[in-house]
Amino acid sequence: MLSIGEFSKICGVSTKTLRYYDEIGLINPDEINPETGYRYYSIRQLKKMLFINRLKSYHFSLEEIKAILELEDDQSSEKLCSALNRKIREIQEKLNAFEYSLKQMSNDILNLEKGIPIMSYLDNIEVQLVETQPMNILYMRQMMSSDDYVAGYEKYFSRLYEKIATEELTLLGTPMTIYHSPEYNPAGNDTEFAIPIEETVKETRDLPGGLCAKSVLKGSYSELTSVYAKLREWVENEGYELVKSPYEVYVTDPNQATVPEDIVTEVYFPVEKK
Amino acid sequence: MLSIGEFSKICGVSTKTLRYYDEIGLINPDEINPETGYRYYSIRQLKKMLFINRLKSYHFSLEEIKAILELEDDQSSEKLCSALNRKIREIQEKLNAFEYSLKQMSNDILNLEKGIPIMSYLDNIEVQLVETQPMNILYMRQMMSSDDYVAGYEKYFSRLYEKIATEELTLLGTPMTIYHSPEYNPAGNDTEFAIPIEETVKETRDLPGGLCAKSVLKGSYSELTSVYAKLREWVENEGYELVKSPYEVYVTDPNQATVPEDIVTEVYFPVEKK
DNA sequence: AGTTGACTTTGCCCTTAGGGTAAGGTGTTT
DNA sequence: AAACACCTTACCCTAAGGGCAAAGTCAACT
């Protein structure tokens, strides 16, 4: 039997960590002296501890590790595989987010070197008042958490396009998203993916036209929050109020764009004079 | 002037967050009613708030953002650039770490599908007792934090190789690392990078030979911690004790390896019978 | 047997970036 | 004046431990 200090040195984990793992039931000492409370570990526990470290290096949380260890008892390598696959997808997404940040930061640096302040694009956001025409849209409405927006857009728009292709419907515009949640909530937003088409089928509905505050963004989607802010500011300043759900129209295909400025997005706020 | 709720809606940030940012001095309301304590924001603060959000999306901590905002006052785009560049490098490192995890996990899944348990490599770690010969090594000794090990190895070994090349010294072996810190400390370890050579010059020293417990790892460096654990276990079990700093010899060049099993690393624990 | 020093125990406070909730005060509308 | 929306502070919570302190325990040395 090894004292906590000895076991700690062998597996390269601090005693504090071992005590914490004992507390949360991740790995308990083989034996505890009931009089003194001293923890004693068996060398057979080394393997488990090293396994925990390995899972930690894969960015599993201790809670996830605990779950894996519990199902590990019944030697089911399938569940372990699926846990690994889930984590791979999760890490892949974070990786994508990091790469996106890197691109954005590099872009900012290029601009700064040209003497363009980072937030200068804000002054170029123009708001105009327009009258929109009603549209017939093929739609899918979904609760979307902010995590799966990137994957979600791909998924739902490709489903809609598939439907248009298989049912030989007539495209009348580019894809759009309508945000029905009154306020932005990272946990989940009532989001409608839509594409205007000519035919009226079961999954279409009418998107009424009317007075709208409109802004056009030529740049990365990450600047959309600023566009929304500017629109809200304008609506407030000019004495209007938002009367229906705002929506975005993706005029260009982001996959075709070589520089962020090639991406064109229109944002509409249906408004009425207060 | 906007109440906290209005400002919150315009910039898409919760009131809770705005109060928190006020508390830590990141962005304070333009005006506070001294009687009621009500916070009032000016629309001119929108730009700052959106800038904060942008920096947050680049994974800056609020502390870092605060520092950037403070130096932003004197319009120095240089410092902002250098902060962005630092963050780019930081994110790049995390990205590398993620990619490494992804590779490892994929490897584990492949093994699992072949019926090989993840931790089975532990049973293949063999320890032998050997007598090493003294060596003459060209060395550089450095405190290394666990974050910059990856970059550090490249850096210091290439410096040593450069010296060997320019001074026309004679290589007698592959690179090695000697760990002088008695215990592993993530904050910083006293680490010696060394390459055995023939000539005795100012930056060489004698690495004494002697009795060693030795293990050979054929696999990824992330399994090294397990090798250390196994060595410590063996030393304990067989009644030896560690009497000098342990060291690793990198027999193969990891950049030449196509599969992790091609990477060969020897780990030595200089020991004496207790 | 006593002492010293190394080791271990529990307990408490600290970290990030806020979220949730409660009790009570304020502003606006009916 | 009441109702209701909005605002305030205050307190507790998160993950994965680190740091420190007071007190108990273990092994070795005198």
From TrEMBL, chains A, B:
Q: Where is the HTH merR-type domain?
A: 1-71
Q: Where is the signal peptide?
A: none
Question: Which SMART domains is this protein grouped with?
Answer: AraC_E_bind (SM00871), HTH_MERR (SM00422)
Mitochondrion keyword on record: no
Superkingdom, taxonomy of origin: Bacteria
Q: State a single Pfam family of this protein.
A: MerR_1
Name the UniProt key words of this record, in alphabetical order.
Answer: Coiled coil, DNA-binding, Repressor, Transcription, Transcription regulation
According to the UniProt entry, its GO molecular function terms are:
DNA binding; DNA-binding transcription factor activity
Coiled coil (UniProt feature): 81-108
Stored InterPro entries = AraC_E-bd, DNA-bd_dom_put_sf, GyrI-like, MerR-type_HTH_dom, MerR_fam, Reg_factor_effector_dom_sf
Per its UniProt record, what PANTHER family does this chain match? MERR-FAMILY TRANSCRIPTIONAL REGULATOR, REDOX-CYCLING DRUG-SENSING TRANSCRIPTIONAL ACTIVATOR SOXR
Query: What is the protein named?
Result: MerR family transcriptional regulator
Protein's organism? Bacillus canaveralius
